[in-house]
Write a structure and sequence with these properties.
The complex is a heterodimer. Chain A is α+β, with helices and mostly antiparallel strands. In chain A, 31% of the residues lie in helices and 24% in strands. Chain B is built from 6 helices and 15 strands. The chains are: A alpha+beta, B alpha/beta.
Chain lengths: 376, 288
């Protein structure tokens, strides 16, 4: 059979069950598939193999401090009918626990060895537009300066990305304000829009086109394209939350001593949930261990959070001993100094920090409060 | 001294977190709980290639204990032998304190920004240090001595809590003989102290500075630097001519770990030496 593959940037229509064939092609190409699946009452990201592993027929309800799954009626059931959950792709590209170094003392001298494991080949299934933007931000942080994180780079270079255009927004979402979604515009190999009868597939790269080998597809009709754009429009209309960004970072820099920080600091529990679920938060610390004789040692990099008390420890104490000061650091970095550091905001508007905050602190509302006080 | 080389197996061309092996060559006690460790790289290629600027730092690594950011306090013109003045403050620095000549440790660097050593010929330097803050400024002093004629007046204002906490006191006579105006103070004197008593910023009252042609370089506790800046500004030295070296928790030194952020700056990359005009909106903000 002659290869009949769509060209890059084409849109094609594909029967929904044919997505299994794409999965099989990816697995044949030695990719580990990572995608959404239902576990313990949430849609999480883990290794999947089959269409059945996807959360077919499940949707989610999100509010500040609240997340619940719900079954949708059979006739509305979809594979990708949900918003982003507690996991993000950073746990695969920037693992929360990673061995950096092994040291061994031989003849009284230390010998240092970097780990030798080959990096994994991941195919990310169902990446929302906000998370594509988040990956692009972490690229800048970990690969975009004079130093490159070789561990991140090795994982990142291998990734295959199958994006999904959002068909619905949660009450926490504000990607439209951050100009990251709901439509995936770049940074993917394939992008799906789920319609009742078909997937509309946009080809983002040669590698993406290659994965449609032996997949039954047809050129998309104007009808299909129109339906797909209405799906995305519907999601965009559902977004009610807004973040005003035109006065950032100056608004935050000029109000570092605003009394509002005390007010939000009194509500914040400093639990670090927001930094764990945030798809761009990148901070890490290191753990050093040794054997009892002190002749062999390991260095492990672990995820850290600016909400942890000893994050800012120097001799003589912590720079940020109060919750207020740690919340101010997180927010003023995420929305403010990130821009000066990396040329982009650190926020993509995914809303995870709002949904997974146990006390329901809303990042956009905190900025609004500071702005309102500044205007008085 | 050992001659074995570390076998560093790199997975990618450059792993910025991978230390290089170095050997302790000397330990010189400087003050109570503070010593200077001289060390050089085991690999002769590494040793010959290493260069640093005054104010830069290295990450010193002791397997099983951890890594600390320590300024290089030796002469930049002899980079094959590196001096690090270490105060025993935490578990890693205390473990470094137990090292003896011949012991090995990991070193990676140099990292960070440096003091402005190439301002216009004839510029006056006002070097202001508190406690161990003199360690990152000692390379400035040593560089100045090598080309003293290039600079105008060079003044060192230095202080510590007690006379026993003063660093490099044995070198002060040579520094004075080399044309540096050295003023020393202590917060708390003992019965043998015949010098000035008082905090470091007060030493400004003993000198005259030409505000049109002077650069201030300061390192010490943040509260000290605040008042040094205050005294400098009061003498009409412009903000742009004031440089300070700052300290923050640091895990990686290459901008990945996030710990050392100070507003928009990473102390490990844009710092530790920062121009005051660039950080004025953030400096001195409580718990920032």
């Amino acid at each position: 059979m002659p290869p009949n593959l769509p060209r890059v940037s084409a849109s094609v229509a594909m029967p929904k069950p044919a997505l299994q064939r794409v999965f099989d092609n990816l697995r044949t190409a030695r990719f580990s598939l990572i995608g959404p699946t239902v576990r313990e009452g949430a849609i999480v990201l883990e290794e999947i193999e089959r269409l059945d592993d996807l959360p077919f027929g499940w949707s989610d309800q999100q509010e500040p401090g609240r997340y619940r799954l719900k079954k949708v009626p059979d006739r509305e059931a979809q594979y990708f009918g949900f918003s982003v959950g507690p996991h993000s792709w950073k746990q695969f590209l920037h693992p929360p626990r990673l061995r950096l170094l092994s040291s061994e003392k031989t003849n009284g001298n230390w010998v240092f060895r970097a780990p030798q494991e080959p990096p994994p080949h991941y195919a990310f299934i169902g990446v929302h537009a906000c998370d594509l933007a988040a990956i692009a931000i972490q690229d800048r942080v970990l690969m975009g300066s004079e130093f490159r994180d070789p561990h991140y780079a090795a994982r990142r270079e291998n990734v295959f990305t199958l994006a999904v255009n959002c068909g619905q927004a949660s009450t926490s979402c504000f990607c439209a304000s951050m100009k990251t979604g709901p439509k995936a515009v770049s940074g993917f190999d394939l992008a799906l829009t789920e319609l009742p009868d078909i997937f509309l597939v946009e080809i983002g790269s040669e590698a993406g086109s290659e994965m449609l080998r032996e997949v039954p597809w047809e050129a998309a009709t104007a009808f299909d394209l129109g339906r797909a754009s209405r799906v995305i429009q519907r999601a965009e209309k559902q977004i009610s939350r807004q973040m005003q960004t035109d006065d950032l970072p100056d608004l935050l820099y000029e109000h570092l001593e605003d009394p509002h920080w005390d007010e939000v600091g009194a509500r914040c529990l400093s639990c670090a949930n927001c930094t764990l679920v945030c798809p761009t938060c990148f901070c890490t610390t290191v753990e050093d261990t040794s054997n009892l004789r002190g002749t062999a040692a390991e260095r492990v990099r672990v995820a850290d959070s600016c909400f942890n008390r000893d994050f800012s420890h120097v001799h003589g104490g912590n720079i940020r001993p109060t919750i207020k000061s740690r919340y101010r650091q997180w927010l003023s970095h995420k929305l403010g100094s990130w821009i000066d550091q990396f040329g982009t905001s650190g926020c993509v508007g995914c809303g995870r920090c709002i949904t997974w905050c146990p006390v329901g602190i809303e990042i956009n509302e905190e900025v609004n409060s500071i702005r309102a006080k500044a205007a008085q | 001294m050992s001659t074995a080389f570390a076998t560093t197996e790199l997975r990618s061309p450059v792993d910025p977190m991978l230390p290089r092996l170095a050997t302790i060559q000397g330990v010189k006690p400087e003050a109570y709980g503070i010593s200077t460790f001289s060390m050089n790289f085991v690999d002769p290629v590494e040793r010959a290639a290493f260069r640093f600027q005054p104010g830069q730092f290295n990450m010193l690594y002791l397997p099983g204990f951890g890594e600390v950011a320590i300024s290089i306090s030796s002469d930049p013109s002899t980079p094959e032998m590196l001096g690090h003045t270490v105060r025993y403050a935490g578990s890693v620095t205390r473990a470094i304190g137990r090292l003896k000549p011949g012991d090995t440790l990991g070193v990676r660097g140099p990292y960070g920004s440096h003091w402005p050593m190439n301002s216009q010929a004839g510029t006056n330097l006002v070097i202001v240090a508190g406690g161990i803050g003199l360690a990152p400024l000692r390379p400035v002093v040593l560089s100045v001595l090598r080309r003293r004629d290039y600079y105008g007046r060079v003044i060192l204002l230095y202080g510590a809590r007690t006379p026993a906490d003063l660093l490099y006191t044995g070198e002060f006579d040579a520094w004075r003989a080399g044309g540096i105006d050295v003023h020393v103070t202590v917060d708390l004197a003992d019965e043998n102290w015949k010098g000035q008593v008082g905090v470091v910023p007060q030493l400004f009252y003993r000198i005259r500075v030409d505000h049109k042609n002077s650069v201030v370089l300061t390192c010490g506790p943040e509260i000290m630097m605040r008042f040094v800046i205050y005294e400098a500004l009061a003498r009409r030295i412009p903000k742009e001519a004031i440089y300070l070296s700052m300290e923050r928790n640091m895990k990686c030194a290459v901008g990945f770990c996030g710990h050392c952020q100070f507003g928009p700056t990473f102390i490990c990359k844009q710092g530790p030496v920062l121009n005051y005009a660039a950080i004025e909106p953030f400096f001195g903000k409580e718990d920032f």
